[in-house]
Design a protein that fits this description.
alpha+beta; FAD/NAD(P)-binding domain; six-stranded mixed sheet
């Protein structure tokens, strides 16, 4: 029977995994699983990814964390989506039209349940982008408004949302709760992974605590992949032929004024060889440039970053991080499971890094081999995670391949059909005459819903030809009224919701769910 689990590595992946498994596997129960996490004081937390997807609310709640403390302890702010600027056209190339769109976290607010997308595609809403007419969220987020009121309960609000936060602070915050939930914490450096005759991990040799044994090991050692890669030799599948970015330069930039509005979304701005992220926290912005070293050099990339940041970046150092976009097709081998960066990583776009950690922790909890049936659980875990990576790869590539930019080799190469997977080309072919829908989504493997595909697809200018169906659609008047109603909802939301900064300030003195 499996009774002892050892997680190697802290950081966001290690502690989210530990916190989740502690609550779901009964770490405080004498009959539950004994979970130990060992992390080295010599190895720092990468701590760059500061964005999340709405699934994080369910995860944090399951771990036992309250939203008010999250805001106070992690420099958190509210994120309602990701805004993409200049991805479709080069600057100045859109003939004066807006060249940005929002991948919003909110679906349509149409109360009757009428599917508005076919009517928008047929021009019923006029020459207005899909993200602006499908939900009030874009106008709310553009105004730097929050998605909820302080009177709303923890993790509940009228608009879908996630968070931006300081990743180092989040790891410490989750660590405190995980230890309270029964995690045994060891600070030490793993110097050797000791294998048994059948190739399983038998134990770990540490610098201060000697030999640590367990029945099951979780590798959260990041890009080093000390267990799954270095010790067990599981190969890493590079996705560089599809995703070209392999380097990031990151900066932490203070606000120029204490009352500077905090953006309510991640701002992703495309440049000649990559894109910048711009994330607003309570006292600073996290800004970085993700680029392809095959399409630019480091010196020019840093200049692009500094030009974007402007005077606020003077005197600030840029931290360089290299990565290889890809994943392991086998994440569970013998008695070792890879979670986090040791499992795979594409790039910071759409915050898939933390999301994959959440998914892996939930999947491991559901498939946990209580009776020792490791091979059966491993087969299902590996198949599920592999398909999730493949689908997420297509979703990330969708942001790039539909570009109309031809101003640099980076964008020309991204639009080249040779860089687009067969599976994504199949999806684009499906959507020539019908929009993405639930029929295209498998909830067991798709980490993004059909609405996410719609926001990106149509934000990038793809046009599904609905003319063959136009004659059978009969709710044109109802659709016009629904679009008008969503506009009225946006007016009301902008009047009644506080700004992002105002809600964060309220959470410093009041708890969510209180009226005074």
């Amino acid at each position: 029977m499996i009774k002892r689990l050892l997680i190697v590595g802290g950081g966001t992946a290690g502690w989210i995994t530990a916190g989740y498994l502690a609550r779901t596997l009964g770490a405080q129960n004498p009959d539950g699983i004994r979970i130990t996490l060992v992390e080295s004081s010599d190895i720092g937390i990468l701590g760059v990814g500061e964005g999340t997807f709405p699934s994080i609310r369910t995860t944090l709640k399951r771990i036992g964390l309250d939203e008010t403390s999250l805001i106070r302890e992690c420099s958190a702010s509210f994120k309602q989506g990701a805004k993409f600027v200049h991805w479709r056209h080069a600057p100045g190339g859109s003939n004066g039209a807006p060249d940005h769109y929002l991948h919003a976290f909110q679906v349509s607010q149409e109360p009757s349940g009428l599917d508005l997308l076919p009517y928008w595609l047929l021009g019923v809403a006029g020459n207005v982008n899909w993200d602006e007419v499908n939900t009030p969220q874009k106008r709310v987020a553009d105004a730097c408004r929050a998605p909820k009121l302080i009177s709303h309960s923890d993790y509940v609000g009228p608009l879908g949302y996630a968070y931006h936060f300081d990743a180092v602070k989040l790891a410490k915050f989750v660590r405190t709760q995980a230890i309270a939930s029964g995690i045994h914490h060891i600070v030490d450096t793993v110097e050797a992974v000791n294998l048994t005759e059948d190739g399983s991990i038998g134990s770990l040799s540490t610098r201060e605590h000697g030999v640590l044994s367990a029945d099951l090991f979780v590798d959260c050692t990041g890009f080093r992949a000390q267990l799954i890669g270095a010790a067990l030799g599981v190969p890493y599948k590079s996705c560089r032929p599809v995703l070209f970015c392999d380097t990031a330069l990151a900066m932490q930039v203070p606000y120029q004024r204490p009352n500077t509005p905090i953006a309510s979304y991640t701002i992703s701005t495309a440049h000649e060889a990559g894109w910048t992220w711009d994330i607003g926290l309570d006292t600073r912005r996290g800004i970085g440039y993700v680029y392809s070293s095959a399409h630019t050099d480091d010196a020019h990339a840093e200049q692009v970053l500094r030009d974007y940041v402007g005077p606020a970046g003077e005197g600030l150092a840029a931290r360089k991080i290299g990565f290889n976009a890809g994943f392991r097709e086998i994440n569970w081998k013998k008695n070792c499971i890879a979670i986090g960066l040791s499992s795979g990583f594409f790039e910071p776009l759409e915050a898939t890094g933390i999301m994959f950690t959440e998914l892996a922790a939930v999947t491991l909890s559901n498939l946990f081999p209580w009776g020792g049936d490791l091979e059966i659980a491993a087969r299902q875990f590996n198949e599920r995670m592999r398909r999730r990576y493949e689908r997420a790869l297509d979703f990330i590539k969708l942001h790039y391949c539909l570009t109309q930019r031809r101003d640099s080799s980076f964008w020309r190469d991204n639009a080249d059909p040779a860089s687009i997977t067969d599976s994504l080309q199949e999806l684009l072919a499906r959507w020539r005459y019908r929009p993405p829908g639930s029929i295209d989504i498998d909830p067991n493997v798709d980490i993004f819903p059909d609405t996410s595909w719609q926001y990106v697809l149509y934000g990038m200018g793809y046009r599904t030809d609905m003319r063959p169906r136009a004659g059978v659609l009969k709710y044109y008047d109802e659709a016009r009224e629904a679009f008008a109603e969503i506009g009225r909802q946006a007016d009301f939301a902008c009047r009644t919701l506080p700004t992002n900064r105002e809600l964060l300030a309220a959470a410093q003195t009041r708890r969510f769910g209180t009226t005074q």
